[in-house]
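Why show two proteins at once? Because comparison is the fastest way to build intuition. When a single record is shown, students tend to memorize it. When two are placed side by side, the eye starts asking what differs. So, the first record is below.
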Amino acid sequence: MKITTATKHFTSPLYLESGRILEPYDISYETYGELNEDKSNVIVICHALTGSHHVAGYYEDDKKPGWWDSLVGDGKCIDTKKYFVICSNVIGSCFGSTGPMSAKYPSSELYRLRFPVITISDMVKAQISLFDSLGIYEAHAIIGGSMGGMQALCYAVEYPHFTKRNIIIAATHATQPWAIAFNKVAREAIIKDPKFNGGMYDIKEIENNGLNGLAIGRMSGHISYLSENSMQNKFGRNYVETEGLYELFGRFQVERYLDYNGYNFSKWFDPLSYLYITKAINIFDASRNYDSLEDSLSHIEGKLTLLSIKSDNLFFKEEMEQIQKSMKMIGKSHLVDYNCIDSDYGHDAFLVEVDKFTSYISKALK
């Protein structure tokens, strides 16, 4: 599989929903496979909150492959012998694209809290600029899960002629109070951490030791990404064998799991990026700037493949079902294929139990 990683620099302004301007800006991206002569084999993949443009394969020092390696590659469901796959890191993130820890031109001073609030629409608008610069004006399909699914829905509504196939997994048409509440816990933990220092934290200190507030926020997120059954099956009431049950700080295995994932995460993901991206997720509403959800969905011209997860405790299956119902209300039911995946894993099933999704994705691509 041919993998190419690059960063594109843009000097033209990116006009944001907020009315502010991002200029200049960079977008880092990765491609897999070969672009055919008429550029008809492009598949765009959109990543989730803490994801990046590194979808598949290994970097030189990787212990793990890209986050969707089980789905993307030669001979896999998204076959890179057939398709040219491209994924870009969203603006606001911390993996190469312009974000809060980027230099604010023309000085070398970092944006930090002066970085503008961005939305899912802004992320997609920046991606369209990237594709235009690469001479890609149409995609065979767009696919994304969670925040990536929000982006895929945004493409369908705001750029209805860019693709005829939008595959939306474990997402929502508008972020609901339940998800916003989980994000609030994470955001407060970050902001109230003394080392956050009003956004003026020491970068090297964070890289070496992490930020406790971000770790705690990530723990909150992990609870929403799993389900009651998956936690029961994975941990039960098992205790860490080397820690005493009657020791005040002895831990159940589920606690150790949250500690490990939270504190490790806080060393490699930027706190400000987490704040800006969760803000974009909270803002997301496909009906914003339209009279109603039905009004926004009326702009869709391509096929929607909607895949919810039965045990999703972050974006409930009813939220995806609402998209199907609204499409039916406006006479576009023929453009929707909806399935609820029978998984007990929870929200992250689309990253872990990939085999349960491949037949639906393959069908959509055909």
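Second record. Ask yourself what differs from the first in the token line.
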Amino acid sequence: MTLALVRRQIETETSSTDKVIDKWRVFRDVSDARTLLGLQDRALTVLNALLTFHPTTELSEEKNLVVFPSNAQLSARANGIAGTTLRKNLAALVEAGIVIRKDSPNGKRYARKGAGGSIEDAYGFSLGPLLARSDEFALMAQEVAAEHRRFRMVKDRLSIARRDVRKLISAGIEEGIPGDWEQAEAYYIEIAARIPRRPTLADLTALIDDMSLLQEEVVRMLENHVKSTKSDGNDIAYGRHIQNSNTESCNELEPSFEMKQGEKPEVITKPATQTQAFPLSMVLRGCPEIAAFGPGGGVGNWRDLMSAAVTVRSMLGVSPSAYEEACEVMGQAAAAIAIACIYERAGHINSAGGYLRDLTAKARRGEFSLGPMLMAAIRANASYAKAVG
């Protein structure tokens, strides 16, 4: 017994109401408001069993509101619940103010009938709080329903924002739009990783705020690209335009390879049709193996990467003509990245030359972009590092 229980019992007993309620309607309200009342599903099962011992569907002050089943009878109607669990959940119902104990002198539950057979007095559990607090339970149920609606709305907004940001970042990477897409990708992954398995409304609200800020930044980078394209008077369609984010010119990106004695140079007859907006660090993060074949055993700039690609091309068995065609269609930098990605997956590719020719054919038709290929390599290396780490 606590002071709160005593106060609630006094309020129930002194409240006078002439209303009549459906016991199953108020039961549904209590079920809907169970999180606010601190009740578990087992407690609701026990409450349902208690209500079945009330002879009528309606609860009113004119009728006896005390039910007096034994624990054995309650357990049978509560799907065979164990005695310890039954007592625990009965205490939870009393603590939540759903029912009130009305104890007999000997602690037993029973009813004393009068001369006409009507119940004069009964000892057990009073359902009076269900009648007295029925309006309160209805309001609590409505509050929980409104909270669930808000939760679903915020969850849907977060799902839509995640989808839109994912598509915008992929478009920026695939189209070679200038911008710090590597950082945007990392921030997106970090936000998605913070989504709990069972999020609360507060969790989702904080996450959608972060995702919205990222979406605004991604949209800003894309809008800046569109504005710069218009200001340059470029009539190339947005979906095909790829702008170089490197400070070096296209001519500077073309390597001057040091040829070994007796080796014929691989002549690139056409200038690169694409320039890359991928940071070199991003390429090396996805394709670290190619770095060992750069001049001096490392890759410090785009020229080093393209030089390493020529060496790796030969190791993979890719013919000079296949690589030359890739350079013509994709551009030298893009072809070097493709070779680096192929080398990372060399153990899973039967014919590196055939694979490169297939990529070149798709690029010629406008069906291939390096973005997904590079991001797949980055994810694969991250997963491997996590596994061995």
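One difference worth noting in the second protein: The radius of gyration is 36 Å.
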